[in-house]
Design a protein that fits this description.
14% strand; globular; alpha/beta; single chain; 6 strands
């Protein structure tokens, strides 16, 4: 059974066509906020609105852009808050770690404080490999605003903070501040997932 379909990045007509071809059957839409170019004409905001109009979850994949474009993700640059966000090893300076974050009402479906069907939102497979978590914490502390103002690097050099500003031209410098709050592919074609019995469980 085909469980995914596609649409074109920066093309709301293809998004509308996708929802028309698959009425009431798109569970979520997943895309990178940027890849080969930025969103145009408010594409991300229009896409989010279309998702909510059709009852789909809007997910931003920040595996590449998170902590590289901006320490709070590319979504911060474009002033967009998705329903869910995925994060990768950019948040741990290259060590193996990943994270899922999102809106409380969705994230709590993976918890125990409700009587609904539980959704599995995490894995304990690598739970004992704490070096990645240590690297993530060090990265978050190092790139936080308080670290820049009060940390040893900031005290020793008046220009230390300038080394941590993101370079939006090259997209390769370290993040500037903070960690993800409530945020998570755009090749020219992106994906939407159609729900099935296994996808919902």
């Amino acid at each position: 059974q085909q469980l995914t379909t596609t649409f074109k990045y920066n093309d709301m007509e293809s998004v509308r066509a996708m929802f028309e071809v698959h009425p009431d059957s798109i569970a979520c839409v997943i895309l990178e906020p940027e890849k080969y170019g930025p969103p145009e004409d408010g594409f991300l905001h229009a896409l989010r609105d279309a998702c909510h109009e059709h009852g789909a979850v809007f997910v931003l994949d920040e595996m590449i852009t998170g902590f590289r474009w901006h320490s709070q993700g590319c979504q911060r640059m474009h002033d967009i808050v998705p329903d869910l966000s995925t994060w990768g090893k950019g948040m741990s300076n290259g060590f193996a770690v990943s994270a899922l974050s999102g809106k409380k009402e969705i994230m709590e479906l993976g918890g125990l404080k409700h009587d609904k069907e539980r959704v599995w939102l995490m894995s304990g497979t690598h739970g004992a490999e704490t070096h990645g978590l240590a690297a993530m914490l060090a990265t978050l502390i190092r790139t936080s605003p308080s670290s820049r103002r009060c940390g040893p690097r900031a005290r020793s050099s008046p220009t230390a903070s300038s080394r941590w500003r993101p370079n939006t031209a090259s997209r390769t410098t370290s993040p500037s501040w903070g960690g993800p709050a409530a945020w998570s592919s755009a090749a020219r074609t992106s994906r939407a997932i159609r729900p099935s019995r296994s996808a919902r469980s």
